[in-house]
Write a structure and sequence with these properties.
Shape: globular
Distance between the termini: 38 Å
Number of helices: 13
Radius of gyration: 20 Å
CATH topology of the largest domain: Peroxisomal Thiolase, Chain A, domain 1
Number of domains: 2
Helix content: 25-40%
CATH architecture of the largest domain: 3-Layer(aba) Sandwich
Length: 389
């Protein structure tokens, strides 16, 4: 029985910052942002959009009545959780009107959370072939003004329906994973912003990739020539190029050229959004599927997931016949192309705003700019209130 991704949807706030203008404001050569890290635009979330509302909007864009009836497991991967106790998945379950006899949980391990959810969903469907699972990766990457991490911020969510006989990609149970206790990126409970050792984090990412790739080859007897393309977790899009160069350093030229040829299509969406943490690998995969010419039937796609702290995993999936018919390319391109550009003054004012942490009530300005259906309307009596238009 094939198990994998039957549907995939994406959502990002409808406002962004131009990276060239941000570079000029920071006194940096624009090419450092647009070429050096590979970003063109950076999504910025208003107060009425958080990890929950973005995940719900991504899910609402793909779910139909059959999905709502058959989904009995909702898995929410995020490192931007809004409650220490209540799962973001519970809110999404409600906002998307999924039938009530379902499990709903939140998973956390930096940018690896959605992959953990995906693997759990596969196991669930294997035991319950008539069921479906909803896997979400939703985050706001926020480092603060004038920080080294500022140009790698972003916001967005990816939602995937996992089922038997998937129409997009069948996922193999061929993973190679690894965990090591390191401090390359972390955010203590008392901090609104993450702490990161950028150089060490890049080195750790590439080290994990090398080790899990070698283990994967040992387990599967596969080599680079078995893959049409490889997608990566993207804290910034230039990271994928570094990763590919690392993998193909001693590879045959035809393999290196084929894999690098797919690189640009796999980063198209991420360049316009920025880092979405748990969803970034799957946004890259979506970009590859929607921006490439139709990939040959049976093409194998490699997937490398990395979450600082750290957990890494390499696995793969096989493209299904006629998959293009089940994508939403026009919707996603329209979402990205219709956003409003923020002035740098508007961006700086917004980035320094935050919801109250002292228990105060607040109503958000949720009608100002919101093309999604779900949004945070208020916090009242310490309870978050969400609505769907």
């Amino acid at each position: 029985m094939n198990i994998g991704i039957d549907k995939i949807g994406f959502y990002t706030p409808d406002q962004y910052v131009d990276m060239e203008k941000l570079a000029e404001k920071r006194g940096v050569e624009p090419a450092k942002y647009t070429i050096g890290i590979g970003q063109e635009r950076m999504a910025v979330a208003p107060l009425h959009e958080d990890a929950v509302s973005m995940a719900a909007n991504a899910a609402l864009s793909i779910l139909d009545d059959d999905d709502r009836e058959k989904i009995d497991f909702v898995l929410f991967g995020s490192e931007s959780g809004v409650d220490h106790s209540k799962s973001g998945a519970v809110w999404v379950h409600h906002l998307t009107d999924i039938q009530e006899n379902a499990r709903s949980i939140e998973l956390k391990q930096a940018c690896y959370g959605a992959t953990a959810g995906l693997k759990m969903a596969m196991g669930h469907v294997a035991l319950n072939p008539d069921s479906k699972a909803l896997v979400l990766g939703s985050d706001i990457a926020k480092y603060g003004l004038n920080t080294p991490g500022e140009p790698t911020q972003g916001a967005g969510a990816v939602a995937m329906v996992i089922s038997s006989n998937p129409r997009l990609m069948a996922l193999d149970n061929d993973s190679a994973a690894m965990t090591k206790d390191i401090s390359d990126f972390w955010r203590p409970l008392y901090s609104d912003y993450a702490f990161v050792d950028g150089k060490f984090s890049n080195e750790s990412y590439l080290s994990f990739l090398k080790e899990v790739w070698e283990k994967y080859k040992e387990k599967t007897d596969r080599e680079l020539n078995d893959f049409e393309a490889i997608c990566f977790h993207l804290p910034y899009t230039k990271m994928a190029k570094k990763a590919l160069l690392s993998l193909t350093e001693n590879a045959p030229e035809e393999d290196a050229e084929r894999l690098m040829g797919h690189y640009q299509n796999s980063i198209t969406y991420n360049k316009q959004v920025g880092n979405v943490y748990t969803g970034s690998l799957y946004l890259s995969m979506l970009s590859l599927l929607e921006q490439s010419e139709e990939l040959p039937e049976g093409s194998r796609i490699g997937l490398f997931s990395y979450g600082s702290g750290a957990v890494g995993e390499f696995f793969s999936g096989v493209i299904q016949p006629g998959y293009k018919a089940y994508l939403n390319k026009d919707t996603h391109e329209s979402l990205l192309n219709s956003r409003q550009e923020l002035s740098l003054d508007e961006y700086e004012e917004l980035l320094e705003k935050s919801l109250p942490k002292d228990g105060s009530d607040i109503e958000t300005n949720s009608e100002k700019m919101n093309k999604g259906k779900a949004y945070l309307t208020a916090i009242q009596d310490n309870i978050r209130k969400y609505e769907v238009k």
